[in-house]
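re: ur question from the group chat, yeah i did fold both. here u go
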Amino acid sequence: MQNNCRLLARRILPAAAALGLMFAAGCASPLANLTPSALPANPSQLYTISIRYTPNAAQLVPGSVVVNLVIDQQPHPMKKSAIGTDIYLLDYQVPAGATDLAYYVLASYDSVSSRGKVGHHDDRTELLHSKISGRYVLSLATNRGPVGARIGIVGAGFTAQDKVSLEGTPARTVFESPNALGFYVPAVAAGRSYKVQISNAAATVVAGTFGVDASNVTVSPDSLRLRAGETQTLTFTVPTTATAGGLLLDVTTDVPDSVIMPEVMVPAGYTSVTVNVTGGRPGSGTLTLHGYGTGDVIVPVTVTP
């Protein structure tokens, strides 16, 4: 015998309309899938399938509930879990190399009617799928920081071809291992949160949300005047100590032939860094530090013969 709600709907209406009647009458499906649609790959190749089954019965016959996971037309008994009411579990071992687990759940119970008769009832889910992926993100090492901070990402399946971006703005990406990536927060507007995306030729995944905090930097001296071939120093100071990985200051210039200088990185544990700036071809322009203060910090530069 089928569930009474579904039987009544099938007798009265075609299948498409029956679903609407079931919900209108309060006959929601007694089976609720609790298994994630994406399952991280593991060396044991064992995956826990979980379901909540709440029979629609006023008087359930004790011990009559049977729940089976059906894969490739083969039933596998599920056991009731101790962690929650009406939850059933099964650890299923998939074949090596499998990337998709397709299954449905078939459940049944006996109940006693108001007239004292015992009836049998069956319920089943639709065909369900869970993807098995060797590439996934567990978490960001932190969820906020200033422009230039190095942030770690923990997961699995990373490669040297992965690139991190904040909603389309590329970030310098550091491949550490198949389980760890790092990136430096690019020069984006502060005071808001961005989705952190990891992309390669095959796909893009979202690693989480990262809030970019406002920060300031002072540059000394605030302008440079050099002769060609002359070297002077430039000191960059930030208000807080740089964390692990250092603080990358995104300095660019509109006169690259006139200014010769290294990348600017405040070392971890420090609040300032001093770099050498050498005059190249005569000309005048600016050094621009992006992502700090009101948006940009500008240092005028003049190189004379």
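okk and heres the other one u asked abt
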Amino acid sequence: MKRICLNFLIHQPFRLKRYRFFNINGDHYYYDDYANESYVRRVADLSYLPANRVLLDAIKEHKGKLKVSFLISGTVLDQFELYAPDALDSFRALADTGCVEFIAGVDAHSLASLIDREEFALQVQAHREKIMTHFGKPVSKVFCNSNMIYSNEIGSQIEEMGFQGVLTEGAKHILGWKSPNYVYCSATNPKLKLLLRNYKLSDDIRFNFSNTAWDQYPLTADKFVHWMELLDPKEEVINLSLDYATFGEKQTAHSGIFEFLYHLVKLAVKRKFTFLFAEDLLQLPPIAPISMHYPISWTDEERDTTAWCGNELQTEAFRKLYNLSERVKQTPNPKLKIDWKYLQTSDHFRFMSTKFYSTGRRTPYNPYESPYDAFINYMNVLSDFSLQLQKVAVPAEKVDVEALLSQLTEKEKELKKTRLSLDRLRTTIAKAMKDNLDEEPVKKPAAARKPAEKKPAATKKIAKTTTIAKKTTAAKSND
């Protein structure tokens, strides 16, 4: 059976404003509201809203045969609430059809899975709750990490959270000769199924659709469906995973991308392809285990994490950020907790990347003139954030002392009660002994009396000698 899992990833970061050294310890608001509103409003109008209309029309036309999976980050949901509520409503309309599932993800679209297990789990739970709040339905049993980052170790954490499958990259250096069009399982956690992105077919849409220099240009829906038909019939599923902004923003409406999406669905249904949710794929048995000792991602040619942690600027910012984790857990300030979440978003580290950098090139997505500029701005913000934490967070040493003092106070109370109980018991015993001494002794019956002890023979002899001596002395006195 020919199966397609069509899944779209949606994310936007909260971009930081120009924050200079002289703002530190004076200005505690870090975000460029104008840039955030402008960009989210722009991508919603160009991409999300028209793409949602295409999918909604296709769902109605094909009477539920189209199924779509979305991974929507918590940060973009927050921005929809602030700047594009109509976009949020359009996703709710899609959810109401019953033909949409929401894949579980990380609320802040962060890199916490690489360094902080506890923070990672908290953000996954926060994303679950946010999806339920906005769409009234639970997340899928399939999880997709930020930027599709995955490794054996991360897989163990994901399974512990109760997920049954992971959507990640079908990286060539991991698969080798194997095809991504099967369901696999983790080598270290066999119960966890791995759903691998077909990066070749996905990226042909994502990057090459309007590339006139591409040898397969133009890409039509008929050509794309034909490519899928040419795949080995034994291959179980084709995971088409794309950034949703591909439709309308990265590939503009003038390129014909929305018509391509509409006809892709129409032709696939006509040629007997079945659209499935990511969760539906969990019913398929895994064909083989796969081990990933080091984290992979869907970014760049290397398909690793060097886009975010590949140079000294990035590693220094990453280290300093997560060194603040314990302080954040102690602070009662809700604003600082929100700042902590938004500062973890992986895009901040991506802006510091020196890979494929062109001097002086700025875009709405990346507002910085250089990676160094991005690093300085971020570190200034982080310095102020750290100072604010110091003012309101309780140091770990103080927490320990207070806890010990509290325990000592409780122990002293218990000891005092014990001493009082012992004093009462001593008084009671002393009184009872005195009462017993004041009473007359009771005579024992004759039968019960002990027989007189017999004196030893040597004692009798000494007594007899003493009596004779006394009588002799008395006689001499009379004479």
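fwiw on the second one: Residues 396-438 form the longest helix (43 residues). Residues 447-466, 472-479 have pLDDT under 50 and may be disordered. idk if thats what u expected
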